Amino acid sequence: MQAQTAGRESTTQADILTNLDGFLLTLEAENKSPRTRVTYAEAVRGVDAFLERAGMLRLVANLKREHIEAFLVSLQARGGRRNPDGSHQPAKPATVQNRFRSLQAFMKWLRDEGEIRESPMANMRPPAIPGNRPRFSGRRTCGSCSQPARGRHSTTGATWRSCGCSWQPGCGGASAPGSGSMMWT
Fold first, then answer.
1. How far is residue 24 from each of residues 11, 27, 31, 41, 70, measured CA to CA in Å?
2. H helix runs in 79-169, sequence order
3. Residue 174 contacts residue 144 (beta carbons within 8 Å)
4. What is the dihedral sign for C-alpha 96, 102, 106, 111?
5. Nearest-angstrom CA–CA distance, 61 and 63
6. What is the band of 128 on the pLDDT scale with cuts at 50, 70, 90?
7. Mean pLDDT of 26-32
8. SS3 at position 72
9. C-alpha angle with apex 106: 37 to 33, nearest 5 degrees?
């Protein structure tokens, strides 16, 4: 049974792939790049295939947070490339995060179109990418104890700061000002 919504037929009872066609049309109308459209479509088709394999209903109205989380976990476990022996490699963390963001856009579109009341991903955080931290924060610290440094560079006169660890017991550092033991964090 389909309901009328603002002069058009709602596809709330339709499967995910029926809604994918409308989503892709919107992306094209928004002049999104072909690669972006392909990436989003891969994520939506992936979650649809996952639900089918699991024997779950593939209706947008039935999508829950746990379905999306289970899909992402399955990607992390075996969602990558297929090996010659037929087994799968785990998807890389960046791929899993990419699928998350693609599905997030799809869920937002479903909500904006009135296909769902609330996105099942509304309170979800994207998967972390290990080691994806900024290398430099712009603060200088002692190379021995990571305490904030204070002072001036003896050669260039540039401001650098030593925490004084070579003069304080308990730090374990043996650095001296200008010894190259200062580092950016």
1. 15, 5, 11, 7, 24
2. 93-112
3. yes
4. positive
5. 6
6. confident
7. 97
8. helix
9. 20
**Neighbour tally for 172: CB within 10 Å:** 9
The C-alpha atoms of residue 61 and residue 57 are separated, in whole angstroms, by: 9
Q: Beta partners for 9?
A: 4
Taken in order of first residue, the domains within the chain and their CATH numbers are: 10-112 (1.10.150), 135-185 (no CATH)
Query: pTM of the entire structure?
Result: 0.63
Q: Work out whether strand 140-142 and strand 8-9 pair parallel, antiparallel, or are unpaired.
A: unpaired
Cα–Cα distance for residue pair 115/113, rounded to 1 Å: 6
Residue type, 24: L
CB 182 within 8 A of CB 140: yes
Backbone angles phi, psi at 161, to 5 degrees: -135, 135
Neighbours of 18 (CB within 10 A): 14
